[in-house]
Each structure stands twice: as structure tokens, then as C-alpha cells.
Write a structure and sequence with these properties.
With about 280 residues, this protein is of the alpha/beta class. It has 2 domains: about 10-55, no CATH class; about 55-280, 2-enoyl-CoA Hydratase, Chain A, domain 1 (Alpha-Beta Complex). The protein has helices at about 5, 15-20, 40-45, 60-65, 95-105, 140-155, 170-190, 205-210, 230-240, 250-255, 265-280; strands at about 25-30, 35, 75, 110-115, 120-125, 160-165, 195-205, 220, 225-230, 260. Bound molecules: zinc ion.
Length: about 280
């Protein structure tokens, strides 16, 4: 090897390019292992451009990406939890809720909005999973009821994106009551004959799965989403049997008739708009 060759700078490799960008700007896909710019993944609604893996997507980003640009108007943002049971574990409930709001950057576990989808008025809501695991308490239940009431008033479709660990145990029976309350509101909304599209994202479990989330006129799931009442670990421990591969994932549920279709996130906007049109939304 000559002196000149030894001194020549090495060609920049993928690793070197990555090293020149500060950490935190890259996202590694757990499914295919590809490393992509976080900004690119974000533009793609938090999906991997190589294999289509779906990362968790925060509620505001989701609704902004789903509705027509600039059409999102948040509704009932001021609803905050109360603590009728004066529940306390190692922290009191309201302090925990305050911490959750700071962590999630949202005031509660559900974001409700009015907006437009290809020009058509819609009511859309999304769970905030980062707020106490998207658990359903009185505020979430009330916002879902308002979603159906707004949909009935405007005679327009309602689209709900679920991502929840289920009922909020800190609210005890008040959280379980939301299952009945939201179901009654949905039944009332049905009198205006507009579509209710339920979109199940990873994970949709517990009281949310056992009420309005699985009552959509059309039930869509994102690929690979975990959907069920109890989680697979609890079921395995209860029945003392190994569950089949992919049990409670979207693909398994579609095969077994629990959901109507699986739609990758980047195609959801078009798919829901088409469904609304076919189902006679104005
Ligand atoms: Zn990937």
C-alpha cells in the first residue's frame, strides 16, 4: 500500500453519515432493523418506509394527518378529571393525572375534534395512549358521548381511533360506567343514519374494546395491532395453554371475522373517505 493511499480519507459509509447527525434524530425499526431519519418516519405518520412497521402515533399528529390540512378544531378541550373516590395509591389520582398531562402534552386521554375529510364534515377523535395508557375514565367517556352528539347534530360521520389499556382503575365504577354511557350515545347517533367508523390501533383492549370500539358500522384495524379484552398473557395464565401465533393481532382477527378490514396508516384517510361516500355520508 502506498503512502498516498494510506493517507486518503475513507469513503463515507452509512455509519459515518449517521454519526454526523446528533443522536435522537434516528429511529430504528424494530421489525426490519432499518435506521431512518426520525423526521422522515414522522412525515410517514410514524410508519417504517422500508417494511411498513407501524410505530405508536400521538393523537394530535394522527388527527392532523387524517383531517384536511388546517381544518382541525378541537372540542371539549377543557374537560378535566375529578376525583370523587379520593383515590390514592402511592400518589393521589389528581397528581397522577397532572403528571400524565405533562408527559403526554394533552389534557386528558382523548382528543376530540371537528374537521373535514376531503371537504366533507366529520367528527374525529383519537385516544392519547401516553396519558395513563389511554385509559377510559369519566372525561374520555364524556368526550366520546360528545363525539356522537356532535355527529348527530351535524349529521356527519364519526371516526374514532382507539388505543387504550381499558378502564381507568383510579375511577373505579365510574370508569366502568363509561362503557354503557358511550354505547347508549352511539345507539342514539344511529338514528341519523350516518356512518360510525371505528379504527383500532395498537393496543385496543379492556373496556374500550368491549364497548364502542368493536361496535363500528365498519371496523378497521391497523396492521399488527393488538386488539382484545384481556391481554394474551392473562389468557394464557388463565387457561394454562399456549395461544396460537398472532393471536389477537389484526391479521388473526380479520381471519376470524372480528374486524372488517386492515388498512395501513398512510392509506387510512383515503379508505375512510371512500367508506363514508359508499355509506351515504352527505
Ligand atoms: Zn421497518
Amino acid at each position: 500500500m502506498t503512502w498516498f493511499k494510506r493517507m486518503a480519507a475513507p469513503k463515507p459509509s452509512g455509519d459515518a453519515k449517521r454519526a454526523s447527525v446528533p443522536s435522537g434524530l434516528w429511529t430504528k425499526c424494530p421489525s426490519c432493523g432499518e435506521v431512518s431519519l426520525a423526521e422522515e418516519v414522522s412525515r410517514n405518520l410514524e410508519t417504517c418506509g422500508d417494511c411498513g412497521h407501524h410505530f405508536r402515533l400521538d393523537a394530535r399528529h394522527r388527527l392532523e394527518g387524517f383531517l384536511d390540512e388546517g381544518s382541525l378544531t378541537e372540542v371539549a378541550a377543557g374537560l378535566l378529571p375529578e376525583d370523587p373516590l379520593e383515590f390514592k395509591d402511592d400518589k393521589d389520582y389528581l397528581s397522577r393525572a397532572k403528571g400524565a398531562a405533562e408527559k403526554a402534552g394533552e389534557s386528558e386521554a382523548f382528543l376530540l375534534a371537528k374537521g373535514r375529510l376531503f371537504g366533507r364534515p366529520v367528527v374525529a377523535g383519537s385516544f392519547v395512549f401516553r396519558y395513563m395508557g389511554g385509559s377510559m375514565g369519566s372525561v374520555v367517556g364524556e368526550k366520546i358521548v360528545r363525539a356522537f352528539e356532535l355527529g348527530a347534530e351535524a349529521r356527519c360521520p364519526v371516526v374514532i381511533f382507539s388505543a387504550s389499556g381499558g378502564a381507568r382503575m383510579q375511577e373505579g365504577i365510574f370508569s366502568l360506567m363509561q362503557m354503557a354511557k358511550t354505547t347508549v350515545a352511539l345507539n342514539r347517533y344511529r338514528s341519523v343514519c350516518q356512518p360510525y367508523i371505528s379504527v383500532l390501533t395498537d393496543p385496543t383492549t379492556g373496556g374500550v374494546a368491549a364497548s364502542f370500539a368493536l361496535l363500528g358500522d365498519v371496523i378497521i384495524a391497523e396492521p399488527g395491532a393488538l386488539v382484545g379484552f384481556a391481554g394474551p398473557r392473562v389468557i394464557e395464565q388463565t387457561i394454562r395453554q399456549k395461544l396460537p401465533e398472532g393471536f389477537q393481532r389484526s391479521e388473526f382477527l380479520l381471519e376470524h371475522g372480528v374486524i372488517d378490514m386492515i388498512v395501513p396508516r398512510p392509506e387510512l384517510r383515503d379508505a375512510v373517505a371512500l367508506l363514508c361516500q359508499h355509506l351515504g355520508a352527505r
